[in-house]
Amino acid sequence: MLVGARIEEVWGWITDVAGYGLWSPECVYGAWVDGADGPAVGAWFEARNEFADGFKTEVRCRVTLAEEPVRFGWDVFGGEDEPFAHWEYELAARADRTLIRQSFTHGPGDSGMRRGVLADPAGAEAAKQRRLDQLGRNMRLTIAAMVNARA
User: Fold this and answer.
1) Which InterPro entries match (predicted)?
2) DSSP characters for the chain?
3) What distance, in Å, lies between the first and last C-alpha atoms of the chain?
4) What does DSSP say about strands 71-77 and 85-94: parallel, antiparallel, or unpaired?
5) Is a pLDDT exceeding 90 seen at residue 119?
């Protein structure tokens, strides 16, 4: 997604974990924890997510990438030793604009999505597609809300 802001400004948005609670359709709260106060590899933050179907989660996230101003990523933990998801942003400067690439990967740990697919193999493909569609839509909405909040 190409946005009308300089890369340094966008870096500030994507690393503002408290802001996700204001911008995201899923994440309703985020805060740095364990003494962390900003993006650094190994820093932790917590987040709460609420989904349209009423499902709620509380997670802890560990920063795995913090290459200012171009890459920010984190693993998501739900109480297990192994992360169940990874989120990542890649930024590329385009004059006074920024190209944002956001990605999400399930695994390697066990996620609610994985449990749902295993519980209903016949509906697995449809469930995966619904979640992919939801993730894509929510990523676009989150970025748009970031831009609008700073305009």
Assistant:
1) Polyketide_cyclase/dehydratase, START-like_dom_sf
2) -EESS-HHHHHHHHT-TTTHHHH-SSEEEEEEETT--S--TT-EEEEEEE-TTS-EEEEEEEEEEEETTTEEEEEEESSSSS-SEEEEEEEEEETTEEEEEEEEEE-SS--HHHHHHHH-GGGHHHHHHHHHHHHHHHHHHHHHHHHHHH-
3) 17
4) antiparallel
5) no
59, HSE (Cβ side, Cα atoms, 13 Å): 25
Structural domains in the chain plus CATH codes: 2-150 (3.30.530.20)
Cβ(94)–Cβ(33) under 8 Å? Answer: no
The residue type of 98 is: T
16-56 pLDDT, tens digit each: 999 999 999 999 999 999 999 999 999 999 999 998 888 89
Instruction: With cut-offs at 50, 70 and 90, classify the pLDDT of residue 115.
Output: confident
- pTM for this entry: 0.89
**Do 3 and 98 form a contact (C-beta atoms < 8 A)?**
yes
